[in-house]
Design a protein that fits this description.
- The protein is of the alpha+beta class and 159 residues long.
- It has a domain at 6-112: Aminopeptidase (3-Layer(aba) Sandwich).
- It contains five helices and seven strands, in the order βαααβββαβαββ.
- The protein has a seven-stranded mixed β-sheet, with helices on both faces.
- α1 packs across α3.
- The structure holds coenzyme A.
- Coenzyme A is lined by residues 25, 29, 83-85, 90-96, 118-119, 121-122, 124-125, 128.
Amino acid sequence: MAEEMIIRIAEPQDADSLRKLINETIDTCYFRVYPQEAIDYFKDYHNRANIVNDILEGHCLILASEEEFIGTGTLFGSNARRVFVKPKYQNMGLGKKIMYGLEEKAVEKGVRIMNLDASLVAYPFYRALGYETQAEDVIPVKNGQSLRYYKMVKKLGNQ
Ligand SMILES: CC(C)(COP(=O)(O)OP(=O)(O)OC[C@H]1O[C@@H](n2cnc3c(N)ncnc32)[C@H](O)[C@@H]1OP(=O)(O)O)[C@@H](O)C(=O)NCCC(=O)NCCS
């Protein structure tokens, strides 16, 4: 890839740009799979306050070029969350780079089993990274629609 990329820890002032990256990625990637009500739920879940809280309380990584934010992911305790790669940069190994960064931090903190909630869109990605399915779950959203996702885990320390 021609562009120089850096990976760094997020700061609270990054929250608005992160939210923009997350919302754009949700809009582009989820509409084929989820009803609009589920998409609205996801976007509300990734609101500014939750992003700022995770930046302050968790380990939030940003992958960026000089021009823009390209990807992000957060470790909160043993939970990996808010992992997104901007659509035009997907399938280049960047999501994996972010997840390995989170797993490395988790190992450093003594986490033995990493857990996450996988959207239907991200499920094959997490399976490719060695996460196992614990359960399928459904959140009821507006207008009688539902949001289906998977609870996944991975034993750390042998990658
Ligand atoms: C899911 C996501 C983070 C993956 O990031 P990415 O940079 O595209 O993934 P990578 O290129 O690092 O892929 C890593 C591995 O997963 C596999 N993979 C990724 N997406 C896949 C898919 N849809 N189906 C099958 N395999 C997939 C890749 O083939 C690769 O396998 P390899 O290591 O054997 O080569 C990114 O596509 C994304 O942001 N999607 C939309 C948002 C989302 O759902 N985020 C997660 C919230 S739970």
